[in-house]
Each structure stands twice: as structure tokens, then as C-alpha cells.
Amino acid sequence: MNHPDFAHWSEQAARWGARYRATLPEQAVRPNIKPGAVLAKLMPSAPEMGEDMAAIFADFERIIAPAMTHWQHPRFFAYFPANSPAPSVIAEQLSASMAAQCMLWQTSPAATELEMCMIDWMRQALGLPDGFKGALHDGASSATLSAILTMRERALGYTGNRTGLSGGPRLRVYCSAEAHSSVMRAIWFSGIGEDNLVPIPIKGPLRGADAGALATLIADDLAAGYTPAGVVINVGATGSGATDPVAEMVAVARRHDLFTHVDAAWAGTAMLCPELRGLWAGIDDVDSLVISGHKWLGAHPGAGLHFVRSPHDLNLALAAHPTYLDTPGQENLVNFSEWGVQLGRPFRALKLWFLLRSYGLEGIRAMVRQHIKWTNELYARLAATPEIEIVTKPILALFTFRLAPKGVDDLNALNLRLIEAINDGGRIYLTQTNIDGKLVLRMQVGSYSTTAADIDIAFDAITETARRVMN
Ligand SMILES: *Cc1c(COP(=O)(O)O)cnc(C)c1O
């Protein structure tokens, strides 16, 4: 494709994007299609001869776009949000044109330094202490993996990468069962093993880990000859927003010199608001913290903000130094591939820069506060609705509920039917979770495009569909 055609089709793509966003409120949030329907429309093999962009673009509009779940829809209340407002998209368009590989300072000087700057902007905006440095990962999962690998190596005196784990001490990591599945997977990938991820019992309305029980678990493990390595702390876990007492957990961990990692993938964004920071009191003293910048914050998919107290520990655990990655004559450069598990990395900082500058911190805080207010209003209306049972109260902008009419034996089956019927209806999109054996519906408000009217539609869609599945 020549440069003028590139410009032409880029303009078409931009126009398409603006039209797409404008028409979202009229679309069903989740497409009503059967598995395999898209595959059946695709050519079974790649074409031997190149095709016209007009044909490719038309197929995109015909086959792909209508069969997508619309994450930017104002009534996307499922999972957690994955916001990408227009300024983030524009930054991604620019970054796509440069297509730089940002593994080393010299492969991407501006990207590296903008990334340092964005991490520091966010550090200040979140009220984190001076010493925290960090990097952008594709998501919270890989940041958590980097943290668990660091935790492992630190506990082994940085010998594990060389000797492997067999024959070594049996490491132990602690977290509550509310933790996101990415923690378990990091435990698998790091070779620590699921049997050594010790569950901490939870208590209280925040479903937080019991720090006293953590102290006992560690003492028992030490007595049994295990080697405690670290603690993973939840701030706003996925199911119902479970939040551990950070300060108490860190105090216990510190007594045994354990590494602490906080998963605030979703809730971290709300900590831009000073009045909400009580939720993670004690955060100043953790070793590692991850926030998914592509969730509530709005930095387009692929913006896991990883903050660490000691980049040196992280680099010791993760950095390799083959000659072909050296920068001759330049020591002490920040090479961000040494801060995570990925070598080749895209330019992630640009979308944060565009986002933070165009909304300003006050703009993002106002949105977060609005979401929390709407969540509480909807919670109150549903709580006052007969036959609806609130299962967990709002934590920030998330609560869970279920339909619980008297005389129905299998409430889980009923609520499964409810969620399917709500989502097939297309007006809103919700997902489910399990709370103490109960199948419940999660409601979270977090989209940039949501309005007060969308919250009313959510109430109507839930209550009308509930009446229908009860009959
Ligand atoms: C979404 C989520 C993750 C995973 O985040 P990715 O950025 O998708 O890897 C981890 N922890 C929690 C609590 C989450 O909600």
C-alpha cells in the first residue's frame, strides 16, 4: 500500500471508529450469535494473491464488527470495564504507525522516558511514596508474575534461576481465596506449585484476609520447615471487590521479611480520589503493586501499571544480559524489558499521556465518583425490590445480588437463567460469580460512556427480566 492510500484508509478507519462509538447505545451489548457463526463466514485459507483494501474493509464491517461484544458500550456492566476513550484510541493509532519495539532505551528513547514519566505521574496521583518506580506491562497478570518471580528469587537468595527449585527449600506464598486467578497461575508458572499457595481465611464485610490467621499460618509453616516467601494482598478482588487490611498484612509480612505484592487491578484507579484511600491504608509499605490502567482508568487494552519499591530486586530476578542487547558505551540506562517477562514490548506510555492530559486527574476523579454514586443508588433501588437479595454490598462501584423468591429450591439454576435472559436481551451485560456457594450476579459501573439514563435502563432490565424468569 502506498502512502496516499495509507492516509485514505486510516481516515476511513478513524471515521468508522467515531461512527461505531456514536451508534453503540442502539446496539445490543453482547451480540446474539452462536459459536462458530463467524468462523463459518471466513475464508478457510489465506489468499494467494493480495486483495483490495476496499474488500477487506467491507468484510470487517460485515463479518467482524457485528459479532463483537461491545466493551465501550455505555451499558457494559460485566466483568470490569476496559475503557478506551477517544484520546487513548488516537494515541494507539499514532503508536501503531511508528510500530516501535520498546525493549531498551536505545530502541525507543522517547517511549522509555515517557514511560518513566507516566509511572511517576501516576505514582504522585495515587499518593504513593517517592521511592516507587515501575513499568508498564501488558496487564496485571504479567505484573503479578514478575512480582511472584521476584518473591521467589528473593527468598532463594537469587539462586533459583540458576539451580532450579528441585532439592531447594519448599517456598510458601499466602493469599486469600478471593484472589484473582492470575495469582494462582503465577504460582504455577514460577514453579512454586499450587500446594504451596496457602489460603488465608477471610472475615468481615470487605471479605478481607484475616491478618491474625496469616501470622498463625506463617508460624506453622516455619515450624514445619517451610520457607515463607511472600504475601499477595487484594484491594478490590474480581468476584465481589474483596479487600484485605493492607497495613495489618504488611506488618505480619515484615516480621518475617516476606515480599508483599498488592493486586489492585481494578480498584487502584479509584485511589486517585484521596477520600477513598482508606481502603488501601498501609500501601506505602508494600514491595509491589499492580493496577490495570486499561480497566477503570481508560488507557486502552494493555496498560498494566506495576510499581515496585526496589527495581533492583526485580532486575536481579528477571533481567538477562546477552551481548546483542548491550548498549555499548552506555551503562545505567533504564531498559524496560529488564522489568518484566516480555522482551519485545509496544509503546504503551503514549496512550496514558494522551488520556491523562486530555481528561486531567480531576476529570477522571469526577467520573469515578459518579460511578460510585450511581452504583450506590442502583444498589438501594434493588435492595428495596421484593425478591431481590443483596449478597455483597457495594465496594467502590461493585456489588452482587441474586433473585431469591420464597419456595424456589434451586436458586442457583434460577439465577443462571436470569443472567442468560438478561444478556440475551442485549440491553445490558452482566456477569456472575460465586459467593459462598451462591451463584450471584455482579453489577459494576465503570464505563466512560455510562449516563444516569443507562443506570435506569439497568434497573428496568434486571427487574423486568427477573419477573419473566419467575413465571
Ligand atoms: C482483571 C484482573 C486481573 C487481571 O488483569 P489483566 O490486566 O487482565 O491481566 C488481576 N487481578 C484482578 C483483581 C483483576 O480484576
- The portion of residues assigned to helices is 40-55%
What are the segments in which pLDDT stays under 50 over at least 5 consecutive residues?
Answer: none
Q: List how many beta strands DSSP finds.
A: 13
Radius of gyration: 24 Å
* Straight-line distance between termini: 59 Å
General description of the model:
This protein is α/β, with parallel strands linked by helices. The chain is built from 14 helices and 13 strands. The protein has helices at 3-23, 53-64, 86-98, 109-125, 140-155, 160-163, 181-189, 211-223, 246-255, 293-297, 311-318, 349-383, 411-425, 452-470; strands at residues 133-137, 171-176, 197-200, 202-203, 208-209, 227-234, 259-263, 288-292, 304-308, 388-395, 398-403, 431-435, 438-444. The strands form three sheets. The chain has a seven-stranded mixed β-sheet, sandwiched between helices. A hairpin with a 2-residue loop joins β12 and β13. α5 packs across α11 and α12 crosses α14. The longest helix is centred in the C-terminal third of the chain and has 35 residues, at 349-383. The protein is globular and about 60 Å long. The N and C termini lie far apart (59 Å). The model has no long low-confidence stretch (mean pLDDT 97). Bound molecules: pyridoxal-5'-phosphate. Pyridoxal-5'-phosphate binds at residues 80, 139-141, 180, 182, 237-238, 263, 265-266, 292, 304.
